[in-house]
Amino acid sequence: MKRTILYAAAALLLGGCFKSVGYDTDVILKSWVQTESAAELKPAQGVVAYAFEADTVTWTVATYEDALNGVLTRKGTDEAGVSPVQGTAYRVDSVDMDLLLMRVGSTPVVVVAVDTENRLYGYRQQDLGENLPQLFTSVIFRPWKQMKKYVDGTWRMFNDFYVEEPDNPGDNPGDNPGDNPGGETGGETGGETGGETGGDSSGSQGSGVDNRNIRR
């Protein structure tokens, strides 16, 4: 009898040591829009979202159309090949807004969000904890920003349709002595600073750092 009890205790102990670990998680996206720099955040309408079992070291979103259609591109190539999980409508009694749910099964994931009303999009890498049933994350679309790309928290945000106005709209190359109509000088410098973290840091109105020259 004593030996049987010892065997049972050992089995329970081993069972606890080899507890299964999984990453089956419902990633739930809150989408906000801020129409002016000092305006309050409002729930965004017409948002499309995808999650990919991938990372942003290898994969990127090349264009607005790719974001809208759930396409990731391998960096440095034209290869597209990660299957998307499209967000589906989801409601929670305690949250007074429409949400999008994406069920994934590994970590990390790339979350892509598209504001179809303002033709904006963004993406981020999200790390998942072990045996985590749900994870809420937020994105803020800011159509008032006068730039093609910037960083907002851990999101890389893009406006492919923004056209920069020249400093002197009335001037044409060659109008003034010393103009060089043959080509541009200088170039983009700098890059994205910091890195991505597993937590959600884009839920507040003042989050994010502008950076015009971020890499995809």
A few lines on this structure:
The protein contains 2 helices and 13 strands. It is mainly beta and 216 residues long.
Order of helices and strands: HEEEEHEEEEEEEEE
Shape: globular
Strand order of the largest sheet: 6-3-9-10-13-12
Which blocks of ≥5 consecutive residues have pLDDT under 50?
4-16, 177-199, 201-213
* Rounded average pLDDT: 80
Task: Name the structural class.
Answer: mainly beta
Could you list some keywords that capture this structure?
216 residues; mainly beta; 5-stranded mixed beta sheet; 2 helices; 10% helix; globular
What does this structure look like?
The chain is mainly beta. The chain is 10% helix and 32% strand. It has helices spanning 2-17, 64-69; strands at 25-33, 42-43, 47-52, 59-60, 73-74, 84-86, 88-92, 95-104, 109-115, 120-126, 134-141, 149-152, 155-158. The strands form 3 sheets. It has a 6-stranded antiparallel β-sheet. Strands 1, 2, 7, 8 and 11 form a 5-stranded mixed β-sheet that branches. A two-stranded antiparallel sheet has the order 4-5. A hairpin with a 2-residue loop joins strand 7 and strand 8 (95-104). The radius of gyration is 23 Å and the shape is globular. The chain starts with a helix and ends in a 58-residue tail after the last strand. Residues 4-16, 177-199 and 201-213 have low confidence and may be disordered.
